[in-house]
Amino acid sequence: MTLILRDVGFHEPADEDDCTVFSYFCRTHDRFHRHGACGEGPHLVALHCEEHGPENMWPQPLMLTLPEGFEPALSEVQLCRLRAEWDAA
Question: Which of helix, strand or coil describes residue 87?
Fold first, then answer.
């Protein structure tokens, strides 16, 4: 599964937005994505806001640790801080 974090054609969220209903939409299979149930093969998934449609999102630190390939990669210091926060939670 590939998760689109940002795209120039997506809505850019702002503090003024009152968005409350989000889901994930598989652009490959043109349907909502629910744990791989949208179709066979690779998935290209984007955050979908009920009000705005496809919406940009910022990656969460945990997303940057696995799988490999997200940019920018966390530094060793950032990774240690993230693991400490995760263990504390």
Answer: helix
DSSP secondary structure string for all residues of 33-82: -STTTT-SS--EEEEEETTTEEB--PPPGGGGTSSTT-SSPPPHHHHHHH
**Locus of tokens 């409350």:** 20
Residue 42: Cβ within 10 Å count? 10
Residue in 45, 63, 52, 57 with CA at minimum distance from that of residue 21? 52
Which position has the token pair 């997303």?
Answer: 63
Closest CA to 65 of 81, 48, 43: 81
Spatial separation of the C-alpha atoms in residues 26 and 75, rounded to whole Å: 31
pLDDT, one tens digit per residue, over 5-48 is 778 888 888 888 888 888 989 888 898 888 757 777 888 888 89
- Tell me: cis bond preceding 54? Omega within 30 of 0 counts: no
